[in-house]
Amino acid sequence: MALFSKEAPPQPQARPNTPAGAAPSGTFFGPNIAFDGTITGNESVTIEGTVRGKIDLQSNLMIGTKARVEATVHAKNVTIEGKLTGDVSADERVELVASATVDGNIKAPKIVVADGARFRGNVDMGSAKPREDAKPVGK
């Protein structure tokens, strides 16, 4: 294609943020996958398909541009590019990129909402969610 061509450039394909030719690290739910249930674990998860239920991770979660998630979500860091219906919490950070649509509450110490992202709900930037194995103060 010439530099000044009248042809439109090809649209980029949705894919996990990994170097060319490398497999995504962690678990990847492709765009043709539909999952109902609970996802738990301590490795990163990238979702491009449909997930309904609950997601509770000790690592990072990426909800891709083609993803449709209807779930209560908790992870170390959550990045949303697609559509999420449900409450989301993170130990460190929640990021809504420009293509994100979120209908639910967000709780995290750091929240980033890009220009163009759609969000309906409440924001709580209080202290991080205490882990169940944390010791109470003074005991």
Q: What is the count of helical runs? A: 0
Number of strands: 13
Question: How large, in whole angstroms, is the Cα Rg?
Answer: 17 Å
Alpha-beta content class: mainly beta
The overall pLDDT, averaged over residues, is 84
- End-to-end separation in angstroms reads 69 Å
How are helices and strands ordered from N to C? EEEEEEEEEEEEE
Tell me roughly what share of residues is in helical segments.
Answer: under 10%
Proportion of β residues? over 45%
Q: Runs with pLDDT <50, length 5+? A: 11-23
Shape: globular
Largest sheet: 13 strands, parallel
Index terms:
mainly beta
Could you describe the 3D structure shown?
With 139 residues, the chain is mainly beta. The chain has no helices and 13 strands. Strands 1, 2, 3, 4, 5, 6, 7, 8, 9, 10, 11, 12 and 13 form a 13-stranded parallel sheet that branches. The termini are far apart. Mean pLDDT is 84; it is low at 11-23.
